[in-house]
């Protein structure tokens, strides 16, 4: 073998080693991801590095020509609230930098999904959408007005009398009616905009309990969202998130914060919805209510079929501020949810929301938002380890974007929360790579833009500068990404209306109105069932590797 050939082969091997490490976002080779990055930075100067990487990617892409047309036994939707494409890119860089890499070359778990589409997020009455109307679209298959959940565009926000007759049902209900187990996991309140569209029909997303409703709406017979969580779809198998105070009578103290009045119960009707759930579930021998991480992690999923977990009076804390002893992470909640739901031989539907990405952006706190996105990506990875692409369709998307972006000709490996490498050529002051189009980060001192170099611009709660002053930053109107893997994932391609998503997922699972194609003329399923033995073997192999 010639020296030239040996050198070329060695370079190709280094390229593949680095590619595999970038793919998993961590690598034990020589004990250091930083070492790998040092090698890669040298290799990147050689065209062979990029050609080898591209050829390897091409070979993987060619395997997708054989489409997965199995029936989806299980369906999982990961919804990053406010996770626009700039947020995805910045979260990717952050994920890599947290493991000692430059970041740009890192792969998020969602990046590894073989099929990607774009979703048009507008509401029927809004060019730039809100989370309620969009949730109705990607859960119920129908576009709707902003501020409304589980009702068609014929319903008008806050007008109770437009509710009846305009209700639309969700894919969670379709799955439940097909005999599947169903679950909701969120880092926000379980009666917030995103999860509520899975079970509620409400003309105002802010009607969390009857304590937030106008008296005339209550008198007219409209129901608050918390009440609908327990009444509309009997026995949702898994419910995890925040929102405890909306389940208890007004002025009842909270179990975790007994002396803090802002966390007291809000219900004017005097009902204790948690107690009602617990009493109703006594007939179900395997149900459990939990309100902290210790209780959650003590649950044996083999012995529990129904779980209600309410971990905060309101939203869960940001992941950066989470008490790791008492507050569960999104990943921990998702893992337990899947282990409970997957016991059903008919499969399951699970909605997972990384809801505080949105809150971080609204507050102009990009570091909080991006760490929330990285945590959701961690949960996506964990879900992939305990399910199989042969019988589980997984979709990752966002409801809308934000006025968030990053730029400024930053060099490779620049910390995502760092400064651009130049001063403004107008006011001769530095600026951070991350900026918002509007929001609370707009500050003027003595008529001039604030000098960010005098601030802790890498702090957890630093509010990035914005072009227009607003108390709360707004959503963005551009399309968002849809990542898909598993049975029929290839149907998510190109540019689609957002309401297309649940129709594809229902088609893959043969539920809802999408069942005719599942039966051949002889009555047998025309979609290929997944091979359980092969799927189990491959899942076990991934866990052992």
Task: Tell me about this structure.
With 545 residues, this protein is an alpha/beta fold. The protein has a domain at 74-403 and 474-512: Alkaline Phosphatase, subunit A, CATH 3.40.720.10. It is 31% helix and 15% strand. It is built from 16 helices and 17 strands. The chain has a ten-stranded mixed sheet with strand order 5-6-4-3-7-1-8-16-2-17, sandwiched between helices. It has a three-stranded mixed sheet with strand order 10-11-14. A hairpin with a 2-residue loop joins strand 12 and strand 13. Helix 1 (3-24) packs across helix 3 (47-62) and helix 12 packs parallel to helix 14 (366-385). It starts with a helix and ends with a helix. Residues 531-545 have low confidence and may be disordered. It is an enzyme of class 3 (hydrolase). The active site is at residue 131. It catalyses: a phosphate monoester + H2O = an alcohol + phosphate. GO terms for molecular function: alkaline phosphatase activity; metal ion binding. Zn(2+) 1 binds at residue 353.
What's the helix and strand layout?
Elements: H1 3-24, H2 33-43, H3 47-62, E1 74-80, H4 85-98, E2 115-120, H5 131-140, H6 171-177, E3 181-189, H7 193-196, H8 215-219, H9 225-231, E4 238-242, H10 273-280, E5 287-290, H11 293-297, E6 306-310, H12 330-341, E7 348-354, H13 356-362, H14 366-385, E8 392-398, E9 401-402, E10 404-406, E11 434-439, E12 444-445, E13 448-449, E14 466-469, E15 475-476, E16 480-485, E17 494-497, H15 500-509, H16 532-544
Parallel strand pairs: 1-7, 1-8, 2-17, 3-4, 3-7, 4-6, 5-6, 11-14
Antiparallel strand pairs: 2-16, 8-16, 9-15, 10-11, 12-13
Helix pairs in contact: 1-2, 1-3, 4-14, 12-14, 13-14
